[in-house]
Amino acid sequence: MSADALKTEPPKTADTFLKGLWRDNPVFVMLLGMCPVLAVTNSAINALAMGLATTFVLFMSSTIVSLVRNFIPKQVRIASFILVIATFVTVTDYALQAISLDVHKALGAFISLIVVNCMILGRSEAFASKNNVGRSMLDALGMGLGFTLACLSLGVVREILGTGTLFDVPIFGPSFEPWVIMVLPGGAFFVLGGWLLLFNWMRERKEARA
Amino acid sequence: MNTGSPLQIFLDACLINNFVLAMFLGICPFLGVSSKVETATRMGAAVTFVMLIASTCAFGIHIALETINAPYLHLISYIVVIASTVQLVEMFIKKFSPALFRALGIFLPLITTNCAILGVALFQTSRQYDFVQSLAFALGAGAGFTLALLMMAGLRERLELSDVSSVVKGAALTLMIAGVLSLAFSGFAGMGG
To answer: Across the interface, do B75 and A184 touch by the CB < 8 Å criterion?
Structure first.
């Protein structure tokens, strides 16, 4: 069955959640929210922190937006969504500072920049402002986890190849020569490009077989 | 107070720490509207313009928030200013160039969520630039963004004509090219130090 055929059916509850993880993955399929994915994934722990922080903001703002969706005039909706998002990002910023100062320092300005993650505004506009609270929460959770998954898949590859460790645990012997390019900006583009290549290839093969 | 000369700051934001290729700010429009050189030029100009205004406003807001001692309001007030500026630019373009308005499409309102612009406001605050330095920074960031966008658009126009495997086509190839460009820009590292 093609993706279009699926869209015309009334979406099921489980599907609302699961589509964000794989079929409509915000990073790999919709290419949204790329900046943090590329910028802070030089180690797995940073990638995980970024993913979870974004998931939290996405979840909270989707909930609020969905709750007030009928009170917001259409003309000012984008501005209102941004305000809601900015509030939760400020909360996350201060919370993360209290939880782990190291991670906060490593992520730097990219915590504040969650505000402008197009994925969050995109979900508010495309989903939360049109659906009820329960489904918006599910959708946000699915999308958030899909985003975290994408961050991790970049972070893990870049950390293993770039420094020879995973979550700061060395996994190769001392003779391992790190691939410096993986922690440089260029490496981020290459790894993400590589993942997309892999997915393209898998999709082509599936279509060829069908 | 930061002591870099405006020219240094301009070069730093434009080349050495290019916003798109070294700091990963503004990737979405970089991948989205870089298929034609002409659209890319105008997108770059629009972004640079919004950056300059946002930077000026952010400078004022920062002083105001310092006086009333409310640092937690920074982010919220910055984003409101940026959102209103974008709205203004959008109305302006719609009125004076409907064709451009259509070409930019969804990416015009999305300038609001262009991290490069909020990035300019946030970095100039954290690096404590004075007014002239802030303007140089915004101009450099805008120029850097436009440069990266133009290079990408030029490459992609050529790519249209080349014969590549269908597996590679699309975003994957664009990202690989961006990686190569980014490597080239790492060559600027340490310049002007």
So the answer is: no
Min Cα separation A185/chain B (Å): 6
Query: Which residues lie closer than 8 Å to B100 by C-beta, 6 or more apart?
Result: B39, B42, B93
Judge whether A2 lies within some domain.
no
Rounded CA separation A32/A38 (Å): 11
Q: Is A13 inside a domain boundary?
A: no
In single-letter form, the type of residue at position B83 comes to A
Mean pLDDT per segment of 10 residues, for chain A of length 210 residues? Answer: 44 76 79 82 87 93 90 82 90 90 85 84 84 89 91 89 82 79 85 89 85
> pTM higher than 0.95 for the full model?
no
Helix (H, G, I), strand (E, B) or coil at A166: strand
CA–CA dist A169, B5 (Å, integer)? 43
ipTM: 0.81
Cβ of B172 within 8 Å of Cβ of A197? The answer is yes
Residue B1 lies in a domain: no
Q: Quick: pLDDT tens for B75-121.
A: 888 888 888 888 888 888 888 888 878 877 766 777 776 788 888 88
**How many structural domains does chain A have?**
1
Separation of alpha carbons A145 and A157, rounded Å: 18
Q: Who's near A198: CB < 8 A, 6+ residues apart? A: none
